[in-house]
Amino acid sequence: MPTAPHAGSAGDRERGVNLMTTLSADLVGIVEAAEASLRSVTEAESKAPILPGGWSRKQLLGHLIDSASNNHQRFVRASLQDSLEFPGYDQDGWQNVQAAQEVPWQTLLALWANYNRYLAHIITQLPPAKLDVPCRIGVSQPVTLRFLAVDYLKHLVHHLEQIGSRAASAAHQS
Predict the structure, then answer these.
(1) Would you say residue 3 lies in a domain?
(2) pTM for the whole structure
(3) Which residues are CB-neighbours of 37 under 8 A, at least 6 positions away?
(4) More confident residue, 174 or 165
(5) Which of 2, 52, 85, 159 has the least CB density, counted as fewest CB within 10 Å?
């Protein structure tokens, strides 16, 4: 299980707080940069597949909203328990049910940006003593709450780069 040292000592707790504060600030910077660059995407551009046969920008942003929603639940639930068992994510099923392709681009963009601003706040509130809580998602091997928070940003940047937000990846590297 990917993990960090046990968060039992004062030094470990402080490192956990510092990591979550840094992650939160990084998330806000990424969102601000991406939102600014993605506002210029037209409705027609947002509907077109990025690669032949692949998802559109709308569908990818819908996927990132799903990621925010699922991770919101994981972050809070893992903070309140000694371990977390959470269902897997059927990305194609979620796409079919939610039909992000039919939602106006600017609506998706505003929801995604504001949800992530709220998640940045939540990340700063994660109890340091809970950062090593084991979390099992579907049939995957358990990971820690700390790992989920760090991985959330990596996943976000990966898909923002696919959507075409170079500003987001630049913000993540600064």
Answers:
(1) no
(2) 0.87
(3) 164, 165, 166, 167, 168
(4) 165
(5) 52
